[in-house]
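Hello Y.,

Per our agreement to keep a running log of every chain we model this quarter, I'm adding this entry. I've kept the format consistent with earlier entries: sequence first, then predicted structure.
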Amino acid sequence: MNFFDMCYELFMRTSKYHDLGKDVLNYNKVINYMNNFYGVNRKEIEKFIVDVRMDNPVYSAMQQIVKVVASNIPLRRLEELYPNELYNELCGEIYNVVLKGAYDSVKLLNELTADEELELSKRFANGDSSIFTQYKLI
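Predicted structure for the entry above:
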């Protein structure tokens, strides 16, 4: 099982028994927006993507890695993207939402300090599957 599959399995399993309401709502929204892309207002999709990214410490940690790698490449804003590019961004959010759900699952099932939470977000961003054995999640 790859890292994403392990995150998805943990997120789905934990959300059955614990309140991960916002993560589950975001997961359902991204699936709905993907399935009905041309039937949903573009601004609504752009706002959703921005909101999901702003509320995601794992995404923030991933962006720090990306900034180092792509320091000379100018990034375009969502409103500047062509519809197919916006759809690709939306599809990428499924990954971010699942990682955030798994991250929140680990936090919910374990008492972590602020420093441990920061380290955990970095480990999720790096795809460190040892998280699952360290926290006895598999």
